[in-house]
C-alpha cells in the first residue's frame, strides 16, 4: 500500500507514505489514497489526532515528476488536483507532520497542510518546482508566504534551494526540531496528548484559527468569542473545570 494507516494509540492515527523507491513522490495513486484516508478519518469519532509521516530518509520528494513530464495543460486540469488536497485542507482533526529527510515541492506543501510540524535535525524543506520548469501547485505560494513572510518564501520559491530544519524553525515553518531518530516518537507523544484533550475544544481552536487567518481582526475575534461561548454547551467544559477544582484528572468524551 502506498499509504499505510495504523491506530498507534487511543485516538491517534498514524498515516505513513510508502513509496520508498520513488522517495515517496506523490503520484495520483498515493494522492487518491491519502484523500480517501482523510475523508474517512474526518467522520471517524475514534480518531482524535493524526500523524502524517514518510520514511526515515525522506518525507516526500514532491509531485511525481515522471507522471507529469509529458502531460499537457488540459490533462493536468482534468486531474482536478484540488479535490485530492481538499480533504487534507478541510480536515477537522488536528494533524501533525513528522518530517525526516527531505520535504520538497508537494512534499513541503503536504507538510504545510498539517497544524504542527515536527522535524528531524537533518530534515530539509524546499520548493524546487522552478528548477523543473513549473511552480508550486499545492498551496505554497499562499501557505508558505503566510507562514514565513514574503521575502523568505520568495527566496525559497524563486531559487528552489531548500532550507535546513534549523532555518525552517527560525522562519516559523516548523514547530519543533528534534534528533532525527526521535521525530516520530515526539510527534506521537504530542498526538497522544492532543488526543486526550476535549475534542470539541480542539476542533473549535483549529476551525477558528484558520477561519480567522485571512479575515479582519474584528471578524476573527468575533468568531473566537462565538466558538468560546459555544464550548460552554459541552459536557467536556463542565468536566474539565470541575476536575480542575476537584483536583483530579478529567476524562473528555467529545460531548
Ligand atoms: C518522481 C522521483 C521524484 C519525484 C525522486 N524520484 N523524486 N520520481 N518524482 N519528485 C525518483 C528518482 O527518479 C529515482 O528513481 C528515485 O526516486 C531515487 O531518486 P534519487 O534522486 O536517485 O535519490 P536521492 O539521490 O536520494 O535524491 C532524493 C531527492 C531527489 C533529493 C528527493 O530525488 C530530488 O531532488 N527529487 C526531485 C524533487 C523535486 O524536484 N520535487 C518537486 C517536484 S514538482 P529511479 O527510477 O532512478 O531509481 C512538485 C509540484 C507540486 O512537487 C505540485 C502540487 C503537488
TrEMBL record:
Superkingdom to which the source organism belongs: Bacteria
Keyword Lyase set for record: yes
Record keywords: Lyase
Alphabetized Pfam families for the sequence: ECH_1
Database matches in SUPFAM superfamilies: ClpP/crotonase (SSF52096)
Matches recorded under NCBIfam families: PRK08138.1
Similarity section: Belongs to the enoyl-CoA hydratase/isomerase family.
Protein name: Enoyl-CoA hydratase
Organism: Azospirillum oleiclasticum
Amino acid at each position: 500500500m502506498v499509504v499505510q494507516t495504523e491506530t498507534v494509540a487511543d485516538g491517534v492515527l498514524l498515516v505513513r507514505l510508502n513509496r520508498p523507491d520513488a522517495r515517496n513522490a506523490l503520484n495520483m495513486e498515493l494522492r487518491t489514497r491519502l484523500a480517501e484516508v482523510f475523508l474517512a478519518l474526518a467522520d471517524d469519532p475514534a480518531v482524535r489526532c493524526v500523524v502524517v509521516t514518510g520514511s526515515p530518509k525522506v518525507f516526500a520528494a514532491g509531485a511525481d515528476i515522471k507522471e507529469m513530464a509529458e502531460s499537457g495543460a488540459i490533462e493536468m486540469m482534468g486531474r482536478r488536483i484540488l479535490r485530492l488536497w481538499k480533504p487534507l485542507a478541510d480536515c477537522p482533526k488536528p494533524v501533525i507532520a513528522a518530517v525526516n529527510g527531505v520535504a520538497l515541492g508537494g512534499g513541503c506543501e503536504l507538510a504545510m497542510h498539517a497544524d504542527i510540524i515536527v522535524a528531524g535535525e537533518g530534515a530539509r524543506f524546499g520548493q524546487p518546482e522552478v528548477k523543473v520548469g513549473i511552480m508550486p501547485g499545492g498551496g505554497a505560494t499562499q501557505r508558505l508566504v503566510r507562514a514565513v513572510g514574503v521575502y523568505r518564501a520568495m527566496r525559497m520559491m524563486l531559487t528552489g534551494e531548500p532550507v535546513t530544519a534549523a532555518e525552517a524553525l527560525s522562519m516559523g515553518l516548523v514547530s519543533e526540531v528534534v534528533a532525527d531518530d526521535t521525530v516520530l516518537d515526539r510527534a506521537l507523544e504530542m498526538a497522544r496528548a492532543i488526543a486526550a484533550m476535549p475534542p470539541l475544544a480542539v476542533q473549535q481552536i483549529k476551525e477558528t484559527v484558520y477561519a480567522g487567518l485571512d479575515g479582519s481582526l474584528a471578524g476573527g475575534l468575533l468568531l473566537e468569542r462565538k466558538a468560546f461561548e459555544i464550548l460552554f454547551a459541552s459536557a467536556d467544559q463542565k468536566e474539565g473545570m470541575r476536575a480542575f477544582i476537584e483536583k483530579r484528572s478529567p476524562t473528555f468524551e467529545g460531548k
